[in-house]
Every structure is written in C-alpha cells, then in structure tokens.
C-alpha cells in the first residue's frame, strides 16, 4: 500500500521517514535535537532543514504549504488573535475551494466536534490555553489533511486540561486515516497517543521503532531516561559492562557480546540499604541521597554514587520511612545482575 508519507530531509536534520496511513508517530528527543525543524521541513515551511516529501505517493515539494494537504499546529497554536475561533478554523479551509458559507459551516461543525460550539464567536484572548489548543486542532483537522503535524500540542496545558485534551486528541486520531507526527516530551503522551516512536538526537534519527520496542530496548540514554529508567552508555567486555562516565562496572546475569551497549536499570530493581547488603545483589555500591520526589505510596530517590554510578531507586513509602530516607543520607545501593537490561548499540 502507498504510504501516506514518504520523506527525506537534509540540512540541520537528516532523516528518512515512511509513515503508513492511519499511523501515529511520537517524535521525541532532547531540547534542540531538531524535532520542530523536522516538522517545519515536512510542512514546507522555512527553516534550517529541507525535505523531499511525497504524500499518498504524490510529490508535493513544488507546492506551497497550504496546498500540500498538511495540517501543522505549532507549539503555540499560532491562532490569529484578531479572528474569532470560527474564523480561525474557516481560515484553515482556504485553498480547498468551496464557498465562504460552506467554510463557515464546516468550521462550526469542527468546533462542535471538539466541544467548542458555544465558544465559536470568541477571540483567542477570551479562551483558556486548553480551548485555544482545541481551536488550533480544529483548524488543522477541518482542512482534512493527509499529513498532520502537531508540535507539543499538550505542553502548555495544566495537568487537568492536559488529560482532557489528550483524550480529545486520542478520540480524533483513532479514526484519522492520514499520517500523524506528534512532538512531545511526555512519555505518557507518547505512549498513549502513538504506536511508534521516532527518537531524534543531534539532527538524526537515533531510533525509529514501535513504542513497545523502544520501551523494552531503548537505543539512547536520553529516551531511556525519558521513560523513567536509569541508563548508562558503556562497553561490554564479556563479563560485565564498563560505564563510560566514571568507568564503573555493572555485572549482568548473562555474558554480553563485547561492544558498545546501553545498560538500563528499572528504578524498581534498585534497592537501598543502611549497610552494605549481603545476599543476592551482585552490584552494590555506596552513595548519598541527593533528592527524594514523588508522593503517595511510592517515592523516587536519586542517589549520587561513590564507586558506582548515580542511580534512581523507586521505593515504597514504608521502605523509605524505615530507612529514614532524606537528602544527605548515606546509603548502599543494590542491583541484581538480572535487573540490568542491555541493548547493543
Ligand atoms: N532558522 C534557524 N536557523 C538556524 N538554526 C536554527 C533555526 N531554527 C532553529 N535552529 C536551531 O536548530 C536546533 C534545533 O531546533 P528545534 O527547534 O528543531 O529543536 P527541538 O528538538 O524542536 O527542540 P525543543 O524540544 O527545545 O523544541 C536548535 O539548536 C535551534 O537553535
């Protein structure tokens, strides 16, 4: 089947990308990695990268952005402040032909679908951040794009609005049959909205795989940490892994073929102790508690390692209370060899 999107970019971001119709791809990566640049290049907007793009098999490089059937929602939504919500959405229909009355009807229809029927006459300044975001989404979707590009659509929202807009987005992306790319920094957004993750680092694709595979075997320390794991780049030497930063060694349960690797440790697999632990943990080292975060029944404890790497442990509130965990507390860290995940790089 013809993919909805086939693209090759050059310049600040070099990437080759094929996205199937109906596929939602989360674009993740550190600040400044080139995620927005990638989206802008795909949309045909000016920037430090250019893209050769085919949509539904048809090259669109010669077409201006509005004629490409691309819906692009930048980080700030970019609504026109002097136009009402309805006219903002109708504006997105420009270039599709049809009468103004039709455009108005379609705009109202989309605003209603996104729960904004009553607010159609308001200007962006009279709407909350979440409402503005939904108007921007309505404007993009109303034009029935074959490629939908969303740059951090939920980033500016507070936690509650975020959950509501995420839900709206999910319900509209489900039946959407074009290609969709969503830039996000949030693992919840990435995993709940997208089936595939594109990890961008330093202007190149570090990993492009189903989300489940990226969570199971992340290929970059950045994405592993985004997913909440401890991550260490290093070199396997047959018996263990020598970590690049600090030169410490982690023992693994199985011998790992020699070569560069990414070692990951789930915070659940890290135990904290007052004394050096006896028993089954093959990896033990001392450290000092640097930070305690989280609330409720589980806490995340960051330990600065001495003789071993820095590590985050997730412990129950009860265990934390028993240890007397607090910043500055000297502790021993334990990680079983079976708790060390390894991805060859
Ligand atoms: N027009 C431009 N000319 C030259 N460099 C640019 C231009 N626009 C952006 N950059 C630089 O390109 C790099 C990538 O920027 P980009 O906004 O694509 O990153 P990003 O991954 O989206 O980051 P963030 O997560 O912070 O939004 C940055 O270092 C940025 O300063």
TrEMBL record:
<protein>
    <recommendedName>
        <fullName>Molybdate transport system ATP-binding protein</fullName>
    </recommendedName>
</protein>
<keyword id="KW-0500">Molybdenum</keyword>
<dbReference type="InterPro" id="IPR004606">
    <property type="entry name" value="Mop_domain"/>
</dbReference>
<feature type="domain" description="ABC transporter">
    <location>
        <begin position="7"/>
        <end position="227"/>
    </location>
</feature>
<dbReference type="InterPro" id="IPR017871">
    <property type="entry name" value="ABC_transporter-like_CS"/>
</dbReference>
<dbReference type="InterPro" id="IPR005116">
    <property type="entry name" value="Transp-assoc_OB_typ1"/>
</dbReference>
<dbReference type="InterPro" id="IPR003593">
    <property type="entry name" value="AAA+_ATPase"/>
</dbReference>
<dbReference type="Pfam" id="PF00005">
    <property type="entry name" value="ABC_tran"/>
</dbReference>
<keyword id="KW-0067">ATP-binding</keyword>
<dbReference type="Pfam" id="PF03459">
    <property type="entry name" value="TOBE"/>
</dbReference>
<dbReference type="InterPro" id="IPR003439">
    <property type="entry name" value="ABC_transporter-like_ATP-bd"/>
</dbReference>
<dbReference type="InterPro" id="IPR027417">
    <property type="entry name" value="P-loop_NTPase"/>
</dbReference>
<keyword id="KW-0547">Nucleotide-binding</keyword>
<dbReference type="InterPro" id="IPR050093">
    <property type="entry name" value="ABC_SmlMolc_Importer"/>
</dbReference>
<dbReference type="InterPro" id="IPR008995">
    <property type="entry name" value="Mo/tungstate-bd_C_term_dom"/>
</dbReference>
<feature type="domain" description="Mop">
    <location>
        <begin position="278"/>
        <end position="344"/>
    </location>
</feature>
<keyword id="KW-0813">Transport</keyword>
